[in-house]
């Protein structure tokens, strides 16, 4: 028996959420399957969704493989996940409000000050500025892995501008188009209302100075950005303007958008531009992507920026360790979702442990992303481990280590039929006046047999994620 | 001391620009050492934008100047009562944690010479050490206008052995941070005596955070702590972060800036 939790099969019995998929696969003729797979790829190409997820880089025009075998959660499983995700999103926002305010959690000694004050993502410019409704991170992407029926771990939090939600929507759309009968046989919670909920969330944090229906825009760095497709896709579905920095300007107390009918006041900016590039007057002076003077308008309450500048300090890998403490400190609750135990190489005793156990650990760069610059001990060669040991010794502060998690598997179509492959999950939690979570998310799957790295830059694909109605 | 300030900045563009955005920190800080009697900032053709007190306690005022325009005049005029607090920034309300000012930015990144300079100073306590560091910087960098420019780093100025108040401040900030003391750049005005001693009236110095005392100003260029001759405007991690006026013009006209500052003592 495998040491990995298979989400469909347990001791050869099918787990209930997958009950209606067993027949579907068993009765699907091989020709139909390859036909459908080709159809899916054609659909993805036609709609043009080819971008790399999570700023992983790589070829922006490469198609991320779509696996037609859905990943399924029961209503009960999701209920627990949902509570955990919302709890975490609330705690992360409370943390941000605190560190840009009175910093009680640091005064109380629950988190070391230097992790916050010396963090590159901490923006001195927004200290003492309270964004509307006190919300800093409006879209919280929480990356989860599963190791057992009731065991979910948070790999990392994404409080800035998590990408990939367009995959969640497109994967569903394509599955519904190709296999309508599956959606008759299973009662699957819809995810299509995500754009409407996102728009409502953004409108709910319009500044107090806004005395009418808020004007929401999406600010993109431009078409050369790897996630540009997602920016325009969301703008379309939300029915809002997609703008670049040069389309906006500040005048007086407000931000304006150039339109053919003259300037139009903008109230909420959902920005997909990093802090450093938002405003050359406040941040990087050489930035051409932002809007000069934007931060003064923001800080004076003339416009809302989502996520709030400075929100990134909550999703740093070193700060991550303390999120369970944030839940206890701000909410007075026990964390529902667990953190992965993490060793900080910056601490000498923990560094020693990491150095002695590299063969069993996953080692990551503190500020890295996309599965680059990462060591998966059990999969690595002796040379790779030796090379990594040297890197860690040279710059211990830059690395953290975690145990190699036994990621759950979901059946996946492979050349020989159907086989288990490892998956993770990124749900998208919306935080505004209310806190909402669409039942679903983005499931990434490691298509290579035995691989635990689900990043698309490392051979990962995506799946539709179902939450069954009760 | 009762000081009146007249500060005029004239921006000229050789081709008209489509518009200008500015962010000002031109209003004196509120603390026990200074009380504003009157203060006014005017911008020719300008429209007031967002205004707020930021987490560092500075009053920030945004301006937009619609184009096409080829000349902008920013005028600051006011009268203020100052007193000598031996450099201590007493009664200043701010929220930013001092440890934030341990972070280096480009102009304050240390090199070997700066860390040797920082290591050369000693003091029985934080305050004594800060004084020693300020003295060491004043020794190592002679006041000489024209040899450095706006983008000169502390390391470069130290290598030259010459510079202006901006270079002194950056060097002291770098040294203090090397010794584990938070430090920041302060911009303001300085009233200089009629004997011609001292430097331009638009001045800059550094503040070092001393345990138990809070922020204390040091002016290595004049080898003293700010007293009643100094008017404090705002602070930042470095000169750019603390700049009294930041601006960006839309358009490709080259910009020329003329600045006149007069700080005059009034008869009581």
Strand percent estimate of chain A: 15-25%
Gyration radius over CA of chain A: 22 Å
Structural class of chain A: alpha+beta
Counted by DSSP, the helix tally of chain B is: 4
Mean pLDDT score of chain A: 91
Please state the overall shape of chain B, judged from the principal axes of the Cα atoms.
Answer: globular
Largest beta-sheet details of chain A:
5 strands, mixed
Structure description:
The complex is a heterodimer of chains A (470) and B (268). Chain A is built from 14 helices and 23 strands. With 470 residues, chain A is of the alpha+beta class. In chain A, helix 2 packs across helix 6 (165-178) and helix 3 (75-99) packs across helix 12 (323-331). Chain B folds into two domains: 2-81 and 245-265, Immunoglobulin-like, CATH 2.60.40; 85-236, C8orf32 fold (Roll), CATH 3.10.620.30. In chain B, a hairpin with a 5-residue loop joins strand 3 (47-53) and strand 4 (59-82). The chains are: A alpha+beta (470), B alpha+beta (268). Chain A binds chain B through residues 100-103, 106, 113-114, 117-118, 122, 124-129, 249-253, 280-282, 285, 292-293, 296-302, and chain B through 19, 21-23, 47-56, 60, 62, 64, 66, 95-97, 99-100, 102-103, 237, 240, 246-248, 250.
Summarize the structure.
Chain A is of the alpha+beta class and 470 residues long.
Write the layout of secondary structure elements.
The complex is a heterodimer of chains A (470) and B (268).
Chain A: E1 9-10, E2 13-14, H1 19-26, H2 30-47, E3 66-73, H3 75-99, H4 104-107, H5 113-117, E4 139-148, E5 151-158, H6 165-178, H7 180-185, H8 194-204, E6 216-219, H9 228-238, E7 241-243, E8 248-251, E9 254-257, E10 264-266, E11 268-271, H10 294-299, E12 304-306, H11 317-320, H12 323-331, E13 338-339, E14 343-344, H13 348-356, E15 361-365, E16 375-376, H14 382-394, E17 399-403, E18 409-414, E19 417-426, E20 428-431, E21 435-437, E22 442-446, E23 460-467
Parallel strand pairs in A: 3-23, 5-13, 6-7, 6-11, 11-12
Antiparallel strand pairs in A: 1-2, 4-5, 4-20, 8-9, 9-10, 14-17, 15-16, 15-17, 18-19, 19-22, 20-21, 22-23
Chain B: E1 2-24, E2 34-43, E3 47-53, E4 59-82, H1 112-120, H2 126-140, E5 142-143, H3 154-160, E6 162-163, H4 165-178, E7 183-190, E8 202-210, E9 214-218, E10 230-236, E11 245-250, E12 255-265
Parallel strand pairs in B: 5-6
Antiparallel strand pairs in B: 1-4, 1-11, 1-12, 2-4, 3-4, 7-8, 7-10, 8-9
